[in-house]
Amino acid sequence: MELNNTIATPLYKQLEEKLQHEIETGERPAGSRLPTENELSETYHVSRVTVRKALAGLSELGYLDRKSGKGTFVAEKKLHRSITEVISFTDMCRMMNATAGAKTIKIALEEPSEREIKEMSLKPGEKILVLERIRYMDDEPVIIELNKFPESFSFLFGEDLNDTSLFEVLKKHNIILDHSRKTLDIIFASHQEAKALNINKGYPLLRIKSTIHDVENTITNLCQQLCIGDKFTFIV
Question: For 200-220, what is each residue's pLDDT tens digit?
Answer without folding.
Answer: 999 999 999 999 999 999 999
